Amino acid sequence: MSNPVSYNAHGPVAVLRIQNPPVNALSQAVRQGLSEAMDRAEADADIKAVVIVGDGRAFIAGADITEFGKPPMEPNLPDLCSRIEASPLLVIASMHGVSLGGGLEVALSAHYRIAQPDARVGLPEVHLGLLPGAGGTQRLPRLTGAAKGIEIMTSGGQVKAAAALEMGIIDKIETGDPQEVGLAYATELVNSAAPRRAVSELAGPEAMDWDAAYSGAVSKARGQNSPGAIVRAVQAASELPFAQGLARERALFTELLQGDQSKGMIHAFFNERAVSNLPELKGVTPRALNAIGVIGGGTMGAGIATAALLAKMQVVLIETGEAQASAARGRIEGNLQGALKRGKISQEQYDALTQDALVVAIDYASLSDVDLVIEAVFENMDVKKEVFGKLDAVCKQGAILASNTSYLDVDEIAAATSRRSDVIGLHFFSPAHVMKLLEIVVADKTALDVVATSFALGKAFGKISVRAGVCDGFIGNRILAVYRTAADHMVLDGASPYQIDRALTDFGFAMGPFAVADLAGLDIGWMTRKRKAPDRHADERVPTYIDKLCEEGHFGQKTGEGYYLYEKGQRASVPNPKIPALIAAEQADLRITPRDFSDEEIVRRYMCAMVNEAAKVVEEGIARRPADVDMVLLFGYGFPRYRGGPLKWADLQGLDTVLADIERYAQEDAWFWKPATLLKTLVADGRNFDDLNRAAGK
């Protein structure tokens, strides 16, 4: 491979141009090239300044992710940054596109920074469970102050050039070719005898209430360690000389890198991209996607329509009557107004989307020209079959017919049409224009180009798209039903719903299962229990106490009463005093003597149930590989990202210990806790779920 860093002298200025497409990641070759180019510049008596510039669309977008998990290779990034900063020459970073992570750390080790107006900077290592480990926590706060520096690093967000200039991260904004802009700035600095200005030689940031900042960061992070570590590293920048602060940063970085949380987040980082790369779709051309139909304009249908409009597609939405159509249009316009307020679209774009791109109608014939139609009606098989029969009659040949069903058999839905190869499941999560997950449910007869088109749709919508097979609940809801059942069993046996919710939010879930049930609507679970009742196994334990609340018309948040009570217009909730009495009555009927549960036991049982069912989902081929399960739970079900997903969590715990617990629980309830064959096989073979991920990726 040729040197990815070119060297050219322009009078007294040497230009070091990084050429490592697509985003100039800081590979070992790039680090080596920069170090050698700095040596060359310093050896030339005629050179007074060095400009570091990136080729292509970015300055440096960060570390080379292909090196993650491998032994470090010299020169390491902290040493390179120190080496650049220590140069007797003036070093100028000319920045364009993004300068992220190690890219910004390289720029901070330069003596001056100039950027294009549309440049953005950031230190997003927190998203990998890490902190900036090449001086970022020590240099950035010396420019921005402690509070701003902590905010930038703990959020992992990107800072636009104008804001970066105001904070002191960059020195100047200039439009033009980055190399020419950098050369002009360097020449100006040389001609004015500007001093060499190392950030490390500036005073450390002023002290603040470090304990309060630490507590705030930890609380906001819901159990993730790296934000708190970032605060402590910035504290070191304030309290210690630079070299000692750098050593403290490195120690904290190493501790995080060796911990389970970074392993979980790096797993998530890699696999959120990998899950949509299906080997069977290589070389398969998707069908055209210009116009989308949506059946149903409720919360879900309106969200899907909104996502399609934001993806610059024409949308035809069908409702059952004029009043319903008007309400659906109002929901979509409300969603788009939110995008307008956030600056995602302009007023002109809003007007075009609502007036030109969106058609709301009550006649199925309006769908005659759409390329794909998504049904988002009531979760009832007879209703969905009726809809698909109508679609089969009016949609053009080659149009894809998709169901947004959460549980139902897509093969049975497809059988209601004469074009089974054109039918697929597209399970969105509400609100569909916000939530990142899309389960693509491939039926028995679904054509490959229909699958490819569905993944193209997911990409256009900005979704994490995961392939799923057909079964009751697919990947996510099938597993949800089981771990929610484990929670229900613990309630019958003595744990309160409120202790369970608290223990699981402490574990890192965005919400506990009973708060989630209230949010989704208790009627959903009630209908599912009734639907499954005729085929229920005799040994299955199914709590019925909550059905009594549903029979009274109480379905959670939307009615103001569920496991919790909700005041109108208030986000806060309080436990419903009816629930303990309903539980106690059922315990008495079943002759159960309640016992105490520790928070640790609650989490362990909940997670083991999740892992066991997830292993069965992989074993049966409903999920193509374990990482697919992990991404579904991360992006659709509030699983804490820093734990990587349930099967990554199981790997980190040790599959042998997880299996041992499941087998122990099976002594109490052999039907529910039957260990997955795959889990037993992996333990017997000394392998884990990551081994299966690697095998699937080959």
Word description of this protein:
The strands form four sheets. This protein has an eight-stranded mixed sheet with strand order 12-11-10-13-14-15-16-17. It has a six-stranded mixed sheet with strand order 1-2-3-4-6-9, sandwiched between helices. With 698 residues, the protein is an alpha/beta fold. The two termini are 24 Å apart. It contains 29 helices and 19 strands. Helix 15 links the parallel strand 13 (372-375) and strand 14 (400-403). The longest helix has 21 residues, at 599-619. 49% of the residues lie in helices and 12% in strands. It folds into three domains: 5-258, 2-enoyl-CoA Hydratase, Chain A, domain 1; 289-468, Rossmann fold (3-Layer(aba) Sandwich), CATH 3.40.50; 476-697, N-(1-d-carboxylethyl)-l-norvaline Dehydrogenase, domain 2. It holds the Pfam family ECH_1. GO terms for molecular function: (3S)-3-hydroxyacyl-CoA dehydrogenase (NAD+) activity; enoyl-CoA hydratase activity; isomerase activity; NAD+ binding. This is 3-hydroxyacyl-CoA dehydrogenase. Its main location: other. Its EC number is 1.1.1.35.
Structure summarized in a few sentences:
The protein is an alpha/beta fold and 698 residues long. It is built from 29 helices and 19 strands.
- As residue ranges, the low-confidence spans are none
Question: What's the number of helices?
Answer: 29
CATH level-3 fold name of the largest domain: 2-enoyl-CoA Hydratase, Chain A, domain 1
Overall geometric form: globular
Structural class: alpha/beta
Helix % is: 40-55%
Give the number of DSSP strands: 19
Tell me the domain tally: 3
Largest sheet: 8 strands, mixed
Distance between the termini: 24 Å
Q: Give me the side-by-side strand order of the main sheet.
A: 12-11-10-13-14-15-16-17
Radius of gyration: 28 Å
The proportion of residues in beta strands is 5-15%
Instruction: State the name of the first-level CATH class of the largest domain.
Output: Alpha Beta
What is the second-level CATH architecture of the largest domain? Alpha-Beta Complex
Q: What value does the average pLDDT take?
A: 95
Q: By CATH's scheme, which homologous superfamily of the largest domain applies?
A: 2-enoyl-CoA Hydratase, Chain A, domain 1
